[in-house]
Specification:
This protein is of the alpha/beta class. Helices cover 43% and strands 15% of the residues. β4, α2 and β5 form a beta-alpha-beta unit. Bound molecules: glutamic acid. The site of glutamic acid (GLU) has 12 residues, from α11.
């Protein structure tokens, strides 16, 4: 079968060099390994459905502000769309497309019965009051309601959103449709049908694959030096788990700046301080301030980018000292940086595996909602550990068989599952 596409997607010219362009390059590296499925790759090179909506919000001062927002369903060959909602001032359509595509690959690599989707609102949530945030969330949910649903597309938290946002989304969806279904979103508060263990799941998964990768590299966890970029839901949990296990978190970076301590930072104290006062890290006693450049060059064994995409590039990859990179964020490493790391023998555990703990427990949440039967936290964590370990072992083995990076191996597993499903379905 041959596939001809009528033309390039017009909206792709907006940002070819950004995350979407990176995703397409990542796909290109997988194609030669899956010659039988090649004709179906064109379906991954464009999203199935993209929705752009206007979200007008009455602000506290009486003015109305219009926010641009999106929901993208990248692929549903293996099941309903699944993926978070991001509130960030730089969100745009090609970025949400890439984030949705990464969800397709992640869900397939972990063998979760979902396709991939993502949403976003172009807004700085830190500039909104609680009431403004609620009105924005409710109106956004109303606007994307035709697309989402427990069996069509299931949102969850991402950068800039949290359990409270999910509670408002579930409530707004229920009021609009008359369906009292909690399973329309995951990452909800436990009181509304959220799963125990979901909040920590992404960071916990990063820690789990970190332990497995260290074992393969014959590196010891106690005393290992760790640097973490981003102290949101992913970075803070990963930093805490690594430090509890005896690693030394020597550097962290957040929106306010980066700090370093040769002896290891006191992560509990640091997170407590952030929680209480949204304070800057800069003036924390006993620590040294770092520039962004210096943060990437810190002497460490493990680097955890857990913020945004496009952080590790051809400009800084050759200066990274870590031997192991765990991608807590989605898309933090460009394909050019991947090549540099591969050449230098730096092991990158890719986002679609390293940060898949969150969506894995989202899947458990969705299953619990469907069954209206709830698991203990221990059960959730055990199943999460098993799921991550299985996926890690499969990716590791394939990477060694084929002599490819862990990213390409993960894509091989994920893409072959998706494309095989596409082939079976037909057009
Ligand atoms: N936003 C998270 C991710 O990028 C979680 C998605 C979900 O739970 O659906 O994987």
């Amino acid at each position: 079968m041959s596939v001809t596409t009528s033309s390039e997607l017009s909206y792709l010219s907006i940002n070819q060099a950004g995350p979407w362009g990176n995703f397409v390059q990542q796909l290109e590296r997988v194609k030669p390994h899956l010659p039988d499925l090649e004709p179906w790759f064109a379906s991954l090179e464009r999203p199935e459905r993209s929705l752009i909506v206007d979200v007008p919000v009455r602000m506290d001062n009486g003015n109305t502000v219009h926010f641009e927002a999106y929901r993208v369903l990248h692929n549903t060959a293996r099941g309903p769309g699944k993926g978070g909602v991001r509130y960030h001032p730089s969100v745009n359509l090609p970025e949400v497309m890439a984030l949705a595509a990464w969800m397709s690959v992640k869900n397939a690599t972990l063998n979760l019965p979902f396709g991939g989707a993502k949403g976003g609102v172009r807004v700085d949530p830190h500039m909104l009051s609680h009431g403004e945030l609620e009105r924005l969330t409710r109106r956004y949910t109303q606007e994307i309601a035709p697309m989402i649903g427990p069996d069509t597309d299931i949102p969850a938290p991402d950068v800039g959103t949290n359990q409270q946002v999910m509670a408002w989304m579930a409530d707004s969806y229920g009021r609009q449709t008359g369906l009292a279904v909690n399973g329309v979103v995951t990452g909800k508060p436990v009181e509304l049908g959220g799963s125990l263990g979901r909040q920590e799941a992404t960071g916990r998964g990063v820690f789990t694959v970190g332990q497995l990768a260290l074992a393969q590299l014959k590196m010891r966890l106690p005393g290992a030096r760790v640097a973490v970029q981003g102290l949101g839901n992913v970075g803070s949990v990963a930093a805490r788990l690594f430090s509890q296990a005896g690693a030394k978190v020597v550097a962290v970076q957040d929106r306010s700046g980066a700090i370093f301590s040769e002896g290891g930072l006191d992560i509990d104290a640091l997170l407590e301080r952030k929680k209480n006062a949204r304070q800057s890290l800069a003036d924390l006693a006993g620590t040294q301030t770092l520039t962004t450049e210096a943060f990437w060059e810190v002497d460490c064994d493990i680097l955890i980018p857990a913020a945004l995409e496009g952080q590790l590039t051809e400009h800084n990859a050759s200066r990274v000292k870590a031997r192991l990179i765990l991608e807590g964020a989605n898309g933090p490493t460009t394909p050019q940086a991947d090549d540099i790391f591969q050449e230098r023998g730096v092991l990158v555990v890719p986002d679609v595996l390293a940060n898949a703990g969150g969506v894995t427990v989202s899947y458990f949440e969705w299953v619990q909602n469907k069954a209206s039967y709830y698991w203990s936290e221990q059960e959730v964590n055990e199943r999460l550990g098993q799921h991550m370990a299985q996926a890690f072992a499969a990716v590791w083995q394939l990477a060694h068989e084929k002599g490819v990076s862990l990213r390409t191996a993960a894509y091989l597993i994920g893409c072959s599952r998706i494309l095989r499903a596409s082939e079976l379905r037909g057009l």
